Amino acid sequence: MSPDQARRFALACIAAAVVVLIDRASKAAALSTLSEDERIPLLGELLGLQLAFNPGALLSLGSGATWLLTLLGVAATAVLIVAATRARTTGSALGIGLILGGAIGNLIDRLFAPPAFGRGHVTDFLAYGNWFIGNLADVALGAGVVVLAGSLWIRHRRTHTTATDDPTASGTTVEAGR
Predict the structure, then answer these.
(1) Annotated catalytic sites, by residue?
(2) Which of 8, 39, 58, 157 is deepest in the core (most CB within 10 A)?
């Protein structure tokens, strides 16, 4: 692994670790202070705090196959770790790290939360109107996707611009985000 690759991998790992720590602390606070029966409004009806336990994925999809979601979470975590070792830009490393941290945060719940090992329900507490209730790991997942997509888009634009501006640059690429 080159020094640049090692630096990007370290960034992804640090981002993931920060997300996991914040996610675990916020879930512990939610478990000790919030109720499943009462919503505390933060931004009127748009955003509030309410405790929920989700056996499924987004919008409770797959709630009857929690064990399968756990296996998918383990597989996704492994793939994300490999992707972090191969990140080509700082932006992609950060995006992958945010996604990895969110995946690990929810995977910890699936592995260790009740009702049983590998079939745990994810602790959620951020109530988005009447649409769904999520957590900070979910926020990190979404933010990571946006950062990764933006990084890939910038890299593509720079590569495309370089190739079209310099006719002698055919077949060469430029790495963005360094």
Answers:
(1) 124, 138
(2) 8
